[in-house]
Write a structure and sequence with these properties.
- By secondary structure, the chain is α+β, with helices and mostly antiparallel strands.
- Helices cover 20% and strands 21% of the residues.
- It has 13 helices and 26 strands.
- Helix 11 packs parallel to helix 13.
- The longest helix has 32 residues.
- The two termini are 46 Å apart.
Length: 685
């Protein structure tokens, strides 16, 4: 189709809506599923923005925030060395526009860079902050991780036609015009996090899903998040779950979905707790932990105290935080079961030891009194894993909910020490947060229209589901600058082309270039080895969290490290050399071994490969293809190693920190309070 040229990018009303209408006709109201990726304790999704060639920005999925924001061109020193992508280049998008002061959705009118814009400024209790102006552009979420899709609008369909929109190449059919924060400055953890920005998913008009529904991109104002955990968080992307926009997909579920009442009408998602237990001997499923009531140890805390200040479900908070009133009963019960005090001191653990640690069991008020929707299970509550049923001695409603948090979720590996750290806290002055580690292993359904939060146990294996429904399609509308897609067989055009044999001179030039690149890789490898041999940087006495520069007024910015390498099964201490840059359990920040097998040098390895290639390939075409493949792989090696050298020193100092400190605004029932940020006062101009 022919799309008319849009107005200038800073105009107040771009023709994005007409672009969608002219391209796709009537929008198909279907729900969309896409992949989530492992961040440093959080989970993020791909967001593609702009035309004619969409640009990727990865954003943390955050049910405790109401704004989607990421660095734009004006943002200097904004995490390019840490993030998955460079900042968004809005000047390259024909559909980008800055909101005028009469259009502000979350911000306030202020002078920024000599012009009036809708400014948003947010500050967090742990010291991070960012500033942005509101803008809009065409976007879609999900899709192929490393290839953009052309935004052509949604396919024409009707709502009662069942479509499996789980294939990544379907993602651009859900394109819509998003208002977001174009960040001009960021500080603290927003610089050093893996994802580029944040996706606001709380119940507010500016949230991603609500804007998507308002533009008819999804049929219902709801979404679901399914988190799994991987051993590493690679910069190139580590799949760790699924996000469904516009509904919930029961094909992910290992148990029937059960519902809790959402205690808040806007802002955060809050639930009401009725009790909390420790289950001796562990157990991962709610069905497992309730199978033997004698192993459940109730913590002595009354229901009113447990819920004081709200209990929220916040995907943007890495860990789980409970009120300090729970500290004594929790620690007393822990010591009784484990024979030692509960602490956050790093410890060495095997898989068997982790599995045997107590499971934290939460009893949550169900959705009794909620309107009957028709998606509720009609099975006997005693046979539904996440229902209380008759498993507890206490008098709960049979359809109250049980959520299990096993030790494999609340114990997290610290790559700096090679040990595990407990990430369940009882220190909040008021209010509690069920963070990402409590959400793991469940598909959680945020049904805002009906005031419900649903829970179903799941392995959250998005790629398995895609493979069962059908192979992932080749992206037929992939932008050429991102990837080249070969035409399908039989679709026309020449079925084959005569291979062009390279000359001896061309082959020699390729071999020489490969050897030159591998020599550079060897030099970089030696540089890494020298860097690793350096002593650890000193830390100020009495404050192990602070690093270099703490005594001269400089701000220390912690850098995330990959979570959860495999446990050592109790046989030996964790081998620091077992997590290499280029082995099967690769870590993007540790490079303790040589690239070649058996510790051989890179240059020697390259020579062997080239020699084998010359003997095994009988034709010049074969040798050319093989040489080009090695050349491409070598370039990737150089890029990865350069990044590793640049980030090595600061990565060693990282201690897991939170993007959000959860006690902000939790002690209030005011629905107008938001995610712990502080808006700066408007400027007088």
């Amino acid at each position: 189709c022919v799309v008319p040229p849009p107005p200038p990018r800073h105009s107040a009303t771009p023709s994005a809506a007409s672009r969608l209408r002219s391209a796709g006709g009537d929008r198909a109201l279907q729900q969309q599923m896409g992949a989530l990726y492992q961040g440093y304790g959080t989970h993020y999704v791909d967001l593609w923005l702009g035309t004619p060639e969409p640009q990727r920005q990865t954003v943390i999925v955050d049910t405790g925030s109401g704004v989607t924001a990421f660095p734009c061109e004006e943002c200097k020193k904004c995490g390019d060395d840490y993030h998955t992508d460079k900042g968004y280049k809005e000047s390259k998008s024909q559909s980008f526009a800055v909101l005028g002061c009469s259009e502000c959705m979350r911000g306030y009118c202020a002078t920024m860079d000599g012009s009036k814009k809708c400014r948003i400024s947010m500050s967090y209790a742990e010291g991070s902050s960012w500033s942005a102006y509101e803008s809009r552009d065409l976007c879609y979420a999900g899709g192929p991780h490393d290839a953009s899709l052309t935004i052509e609008g949604s396919q024409t369909n009707i709502e009662d036609v069942a479509l499996d929109h789980i294939d990544p190449v379907d993602a651009s059919q859900f394109a819509f015009e998003l208002v977001f924060g174009c960040q001009v400055s960021i500080t603290g953890l927003f610089i050093t996090q893996l994802a580029d920005g944040i996706m606001g998913m709380e119940n507010e008009k500016t949230s991603f899903w609500k804007q998507m529904h308002g533009k008819d991109a999804i049929p219902r104002p709801e979404f679901s998040l399914c988190f799994s955990r991987q051993d590493v968080a690679k910069r190139e992307g580590t799949g760790a779950g699924a996000m469904t926009l516009g509904g919930v997909d029961t094909r992910l579920h290992m148990s029937p979905m059960v519902f809790a009442k959402n205690q808040k009408g806007s802002g955060f998602y809050a639930v009401h707790l009725k009790g909390i237990y420790l289950r001796d001997g562990g157990g991962k499923s709610a069905g497992d932990v309730t199978s033997d009531a004698s192993r459940l140890h109730k913590l002595s805390i009354d229901e009113g105290t447990l819920n004081r200040g709200n209990v929220i479900v916040d995907s943007g908070t890495t860990d789980t935080y409970f009120t300090s009133a729970l500290a004594k009963p929790f620690k007393d019960a822990w010591k009784k079961l484990q024979g030692k005090a509960y602490s956050h001191t790093p410890v060495s653990l095997s898989h068997a030891e982790i599995d045997a640690m107590p499971t934290i069991v939460i009893v949550m008020q169900g959705c009794q009194g909620c309107a009957v929707v028709g998606d509720e299970t009609d099975e006997d509550p005693d046979k539904v894993p996440n229902y209380v049923g008759g498993a507890f001695a206490e008098k709960y409603d049979a359809k109250d909910i049980v959520i299990a948090i096993p030790a494999s979720h609340y114990m997290e590996f610290d790559s700096d020490t090679g040990k595990y750290v407990a990430r369940f806290y009882t220190e909040e002055s008021s209010g509690s947060v069920l963070g990402a580690n409590a959400m793991m292993g469940h598909d959680i359904y945020f049904d805002t229209a009906r005031g419900r939060v649903g829970f179903a146990e799941s392995d959250c294996d998005y790629m398995r589901l895609v493979s069962e429904v059908g192979s992932i399609s080749s992206p037929g509308h992939v932008s050429a600058a991102k990837t080249e897609v070969s035409p399908a067989e039989g679709e026309g055009g020449d079925e084959s082309e005569e291979a062009v044999e390279p000359t001896d001179m061309e082959e020699e030039e390729i071999y020489a270039e490969v050897e030159e690149i591998m020599e550079e890789a060897q030099e970089l490898e030696d540089e890494i080895a020298q860097e690793i041999s350096l002593p650890e940087l000193p830390t100020p006495e009495g404050d192990p969290e602070m690093g270099e520069g703490a005594n001269n007024g400089e701000i220390f910015i912690p850098v995330p490290s990959p979570p959860l390498p495999p446990a050592n099964d109790g046989k030996d201490e964790v081998d620091p050399d077992s997590y290499q840059l280029f082995n099967g359990n690769e870590s993007p920040v540790q490079t303790h071994k040589k690239f070649g097998a058996g510790g051989g040098d890179v240059k020697g390895m390259a020579a062997e490969i080239l020699d084998d290639m010359k003997h095994e390939c009988s034709s010049g075409g074969c040798r050319l293809v093989a040489a080009l493949s090695i050349l491409a792989a070598s370039v990737v090696v150089i890029i990865l190693v350069r990044r590793t050298v640049a980030r090595r020193r600061v990565v060693r100092q990282y201690q897991e920190a939170e993007l959000e400190i959860s006690d902000l605004a939790l002690d209030s029932d005011d629905d107008d309070e938001h995610e712990g940020y502080v808006d700066e006062p408007p400027q007088i101009t």
